[in-house]
Amino acid sequence: MESSEPEPTEDASMDAFLEKFQSQPYRGGFREDQWEEEFDKIPLFMKKAPSEIDPEEFPDLACLQSMIFDDDRYPEEQAKTYKDEGNDYFKEKDYKKAVLSYSEGLKKKCADPDLNAVLYTNRAAAQYYLGNVRSSLNDVLAAKKLKPGHLKAIIRGALCHLELKHFAEAVNWCDEGLQIDAKEKKLLEIRAKADKLKRMEERDLRKAKLKEKKEQHQNEALLQAIKARNIRLVSESASEDEDSASNGPAEILLDGLSSENPYGARLSIDDQGRLSWPVLFLYPEYAQSDFISAFHEDTRFIDHLMAMFSEAPSWDSEHKYHPENLEVYFEDEDRAELYQVSPDSTLLQVLQHPRCSMKALTPAFLVCVGSSPFCRNYLQGKKVHR
To answer: Which residues form a coiled coil (predicted)?
Structure first.
């Protein structure tokens, strides 16, 4: 009868193995002070996947990733894997990586239109939260082309149009979605908001058109008033000659040249058809100036000078700028000549002078103390018409 007990040689080998196993420490165990860090490197127990997978630091995870994204798998399987990965990033609000994952899924060009529509819609959502609204809308359009009744894509498209201030389009997209689900709460909210903003936009547009039309009528009235007075205007363009200046007023006024006035004032006309001009007084001796926002055409120069110099300005250290001492000139830039203005003249009388012209609808006049050395030196060499 054969014995079932092991041979003596087998017992000796087993004893030697056990003795060796007991004498050598186990090298694959966790260190007591780092067991949590080591545990977190095992894919099954990871609380959060690392942003970059280093094969040396995370060999198990790198192996899994290689298996998951193996190019030998069907495109549909790979696309779905990337979709799931993108969804995980989206939940973590890491929208940039979500976009990359969805994009990789679309690159697989799988034959499932529903899956591709979901990838486009999900990427649209990630793009939207990144602030790339137009890219989001492009993805929505691609998703809608693949799956016309995809409600999530329609909702996202309505949001994009609302963000881009395409209020009418947003309403249309909402209406399309509500035909699919008339009780969709998100679409009802978007539609109500878009419709309200659309009405406000239309109201503001009507107001702007009425304002523009009113300003055009005012400018045309100003144009007729200037032409009736034979006042000479010139364009800012140095290339235009004197003959072309006759076309200037209409162009200047109707294009709203008053906006070029640095002081914000503009030519105006009252109920009696009388004009008030923005006028600039320049004091070359001290490089100073005064601006009169509304110089009525029937007002005399002396009236403004009396008001401005009733008290000495801060820059007149010698207190010599008194109305009776002042001389006023306008310049004929074409001929580089000066014309003295009588203080008792009205603004209209001066503007109707054949050599008086202005730019930007703002007449400018030089003012200096007639008896001062500066005035004599300033006028020396210039042709002055008194």
So the answer is: 180-220
